[in-house]
Every structure is written in structure tokens, then in C-alpha cells.
Amino acid sequence: MSSEFKIYNATELWQIETSLPSIPTFSQNLDKVLGNDGIQLGSLTELLGLPGSGKTQLCLQLCASVQVPKALGGLNSEALYIDTNSNFTLSRFKEILFSSLAKCQRIMDSSIPIREEDALKKFHYVKAIGLEKFCAFLYQLPNFIRDKPNVKLIVIDSIAFPFKDGISMKQRTGLLFRLVADLQKLTLKNQIAVVLTNEMTTRIGLSTGAIVGSLGDTWSHRCNMRVLLSAPEPLENIRLAAILKSNIVAEDVGKFQITHEGIRDVQ
Amino acid sequence: MNKLQEHVYLTETILRILKQNRIITILDFLQEDAEKLSTLTKLNLSQILEIRQAIFNKHSANLIIGSTLFVNNITTKKFILTGINSLDTTLVSGIPVGLITEICGLAGSGKSQLCMQLAINFVKESNNIVLYIDTKGDFSAVRIQKILEAHGLSHKDMAVILLKIRVVYIWNIEELIRLLENIKKGVLKIENLSMIIIDSLPCLMFQHFGDNNNMGLTFLNRVINYSRYLSKEFQIGFIFVNIQTRWIDQDITDPEDTESACSIKDLTYNEKRTRCLGKYWKTIPALVIELEKLKLETNSCVTIKVLVTHHINPSAIKSCFINVSAQGVI
Fold it and tell me: Number of structural domains, chain B?
């Protein structure tokens, strides 16, 4: 009789962890703060921030970065974008995608034109408005991944939005933890990076400041990495990214800017 | 329920006859009238009673003589040192073996970091094996290797330590129960297992939050029972990671000075912290280690305040400080 459980020893895991590639953010400073040179495959990252702090922009950049050709050490893979709050705009994504790919071409010194259609085919978009649609899609996600094994990034923008209405607090926690456990099991096995965005909420009287991520204290434990994005100067493009929680890197603050081309280092 | 098994008197033919008469399990056999069994099996009454006695002997709880208990008590290992000096001093003797220990704290307070450091320290200078049950993908072998590297260990030494840390991914509470059951039944054998770290339990328990039945509590109870059995039987320490949540009470305090015409009411907010997993769980751990992150002091080091409570004397709370840095938890 053998056990159904796979017991790893830490050396095996070390080999897996060190061989897993990462998705670059196109800002070296941000990559450094995140550790592993970006968002590592198999990880679960939560982006927090007030409206306009650049959560969606960073997600779009990652969806473009995942397409970086193999010649440049990229993944040449596909991305799945689960839109729950209708924040997505195709024109903005095209802008980021094509300028990122153009940058790659400049580095490679290649003159082969990018076929827009091919690049866009590597981007899968799901509009899941409402809790039912969102849950239904997540339940059939294993099938989707089986059909499209080249998907290496799943973005959920945002995780909090479907839960805003029509569910009690207790049920919300239960459902959320079940969904995320299933999602993480799937993505760890298939080596897929998951990026979630979350909104901020106000809890008056907290000693650590009244503005905290939504979905409560219980949720804040769930993700391996929590990154708080903020705009120090409201009208400028500079953004700060603070690591609130991480299992691999020390808490630090990174700096990047949002340009027409997407996420870039501050010059 | 256990099936009736062969015995000196219970031959295959007799078992078949019994089965035809719907006497299949041990319980069926015990509940049946002895005389009826005797006529069915053609065994005499004393033989039937002898079989019954054999069943009772086999299944009853063991009687242990006091002197044996005493010898066991003084010869078995009762504590495992954490290897973190300040924590060991505060704990007096380390993490108890045969009992349940809880580590709790808010998000990002260093629970997983402490667990990983404990895993290193437990295996470092011994043949002990640590089983790390990971329920949210927080275990990082690279982080462990970096800590060891910062202490100047050679690649070979690092590999030796890493080999002794075993990790298993568990995604729901049913799986956790099956895992513990497998260890109990010996289906899953881990030599020299000295510590099981579960990081984190609420992650599994919250999946049953908001169910209208009390299934979550049933599962929790089974996990606790298995853990207690395993920790006693195999002489291992059990560390459960629990989380804390914050609640805010709004107190409206009337100013004492009521003479002033416009009485301004002061609003004060009281932040309260609760350990999750409910009231039942509160009584379970023999030792509670509570972590609280203090303000960032320097760039490379985070200080964590540790509060230690033993269940024997819950009012005596001791505290100490530990530091988390690139060198791990010191």
C-alpha cells in the first residue's frame, strides 16, 4: 500500500523553485524588490492599492511581459485575464503589448515585424461579472488550462469585486478560501503565476492605519506576497510598491513609473 | 466497523455460516445471544465465551502499570529546543513533545519565517526529520537555503539539512485528516519524525466557514484527535499555525465633567485581537506563541515581540524579542 500523498524533501523543492522562471515587470527596480526578478511562476501575488495606483496597469504589463521571446530569456507564453470589474480596455493593452514587444525587438536587433494578430492570440480575456459567472469560470478553469497548456499567467482583476454583493460575510470567507485553494493547487502543479488585485477599504480605529486591503484580516494571510501600490504625487506617473508580506524577500519599497509604453523604471 | 476475523474456533466454514445469518462484524457477534451462536456454529458455550473474551482483550484499551508509566515518563524526550536563544529562555524548555503548540499572529508577523527557522533548527544537529504541512504554498526552500548560506554552511551541509526537511502540500481539511490517518496506520512511514508543522490550519478551516452545518468543527475535532494520538504515540511535537484577526470596539466615554453645557463625547477605539478557529480550539494548545511585529528599526532586520502562554497557567504571560533578517530568525 503506498500513500496518496507526495512528500517532497526540501532539496527537491529547492530544485523546483530555482528552476522556475519569472515574469518581468519591465522595471528592474520593481523586479529587484519583488525578488526572483519579477513574478515567479507558481506564486500567488496580491496587488493592493487605491484607485489609480496602477494595479490594472501592472497586470496589463505582466500580460504583455509573459510574451517576451525565449531568445531574451522570456517565457513566450500566454496569459489569461479574468476581468471582474470591467477595468480592462483593449486599446490600452494593445499600446502596452506592442511597445513591449517592440522594445524586445530593438534589444534583439531584429527586423521581423510583429504580427499584431498573433500577439493578441496569446491573450485570453474573460469577462466574469457577478459572483455566479466568476465562480462558474473558476470551477471549469482546470479544463481551460488543459486545453491551453501554454498559459503561464492568470490575472484576476479584482478578487474583491465579485464578493461585494449577494453573499454573507461568513459565506464569503468560506467560498473565497475554497476557490483560492483550488486555484493554487492547480497553478502550483502547472507552474502558473497568479496575480490578484484587491481594493482598499477603511476600518476606523486600527492602530496600523485606517486604510487596509478589503476582504478582512483573514484574507490578508492567504497570499504569499502582498504588494501595496501607491501614487505619492497624485498627478505624476511615479508609483511606489511596498512589500507588505512575503515568504522570500525582506520588506522593501520599489519605485516605478507608468508611461505610455507600460511599466518602466524611473529615469 | 471491524469484520469478524478467523480465530482458533472460528474456521472459514463457521464464518460462512455466521455470514449467512447476518453476523458479519465483531459487534454483530458480541450482540448476538451466546446460545444462539452456539447452536449456529456447533461450538459449545464456553468456546463462544472464550472467543468473546479474546475479542475484548484485543480491542480494549491497554492497562499500563504505574511503574511502567513512571519509567516511560522519565526516559522519553519531553521537549525539543527551538535553537533560538531568547525564545528557549522564555519557553524554559522548548517545544513540548506529545502536546500541541500554537503559533499565532497577524498577517506578515513572521509566523511562516519562525516555522521555517524552527524546521532548520530541529534537524540541524540531529537525525530528526521535520514534516512541514503546507496549506498555502508559503514554504520556500530557497529561503531556507539562503538562511543556511548566510551562516556559512557548505553546499554539502546545506543539502544534508534540506534533505531532512520534508514538505507536503495539503489543500483541504479532508486531505489533512487522511494524511494524519496514513501516518497513524503506518501507510506513510517517516523515519525519525520528530516534529510536524502545519502552516496554516485556518486556511483549511475557513473553507468551511459559513456552512450552516457544523462540519468544520467535526473536521477540526478529528484533526486534533489524530494529532494528539500521533504526538503521544510517536513522541513528536505538533506546531499549528493560527492567525489573528482584529476587531474594533467603539467606546463612547462620557466626560466626567458633566457641568459643561455641550457635553462632547469622546470617541475612543479599542483594537482587540482574537485568535481564530473559535472557542473550542482555544482550549487545545498546551503552549501558545503569539507574534507581534514591531516597527521596522533598521533596513535589514525586523524585531518581533513574542508572547508565550502555557495552558497550565494562562495568566502568566512571558515575553521576549526575536529578530528576523537575512540570517533567519535569531
Answer: 2
Check CB contact of A244 with chain B, cutoff 8 Å.
yes
Q: Are the C-beta atoms of A208 and B295 separated by less than 8 Å?
A: no
3 state DSSP class of A52: coil
pLDDT tens sequence across B273-299 = 888 888 889 889 999 999 988 866 566
Query: What pairing do the DSSP bridges indicate for beta strands A78-83 and A151-157?
Result: parallel
| CATH (domain of B179) | 3.40.50.300
Report the DSSP pairing between strands B266-275 and B237-253.
antiparallel
Does residue B324 sit in the same domain as residue B284?
Answer: yes
Residues 176-235 (A) with a CB less than 8 A from some CB of B: 177-178, 181-182, 184-185, 188, 203-207, 216-218, 220-222, 224, 226
Are B240 and B204 within 8 A, CB to CB? no
Assess whether B315 and B241 both reside in one domain. Answer: yes
Tens digits of residue pLDDT in B49-101? 888 888 888 888 888 889 988 888 888 878 888 888 888 888 888 888 989 99
Asked whether the beta carbons of A230 and A239 are under 8 A apart, the reply is yes
Distance CA B57, CA B66 (A): 20
- Does A248 contact B144 at a Cβ distance shorter than 8 Å? no
Residues with Cβ within 8 Å of A64's Cβ and at least 6 positions away in sequence, in order, are A93, A96, A97, A100, A101, A262
Q: Per this entry, what is the length of chain B?
A: 330
Evaluate whether A32 touches A254 at the Cβ level (below 8 Å).
Answer: yes
As given in the structure block, the three cell numbers for residue A188 are 502550483
Note the residue count of chain A.
267
Same domain for B28 and B131, yes or no, is: no
- Residues 55-84 of chain A whose Cβ lies under 8 A from any Cβ of chain B: none
Give start and end residues of each alpha helix (H) in chain B. 12-20, 26-31, 34-41, 45-59, 66-75, 85-91, 111-124, 141-150, 155-163, 173-185, 201-205, 215-233, 278-282
Instruction: Quote the domain boundaries for residue B31.
Output: 12-59
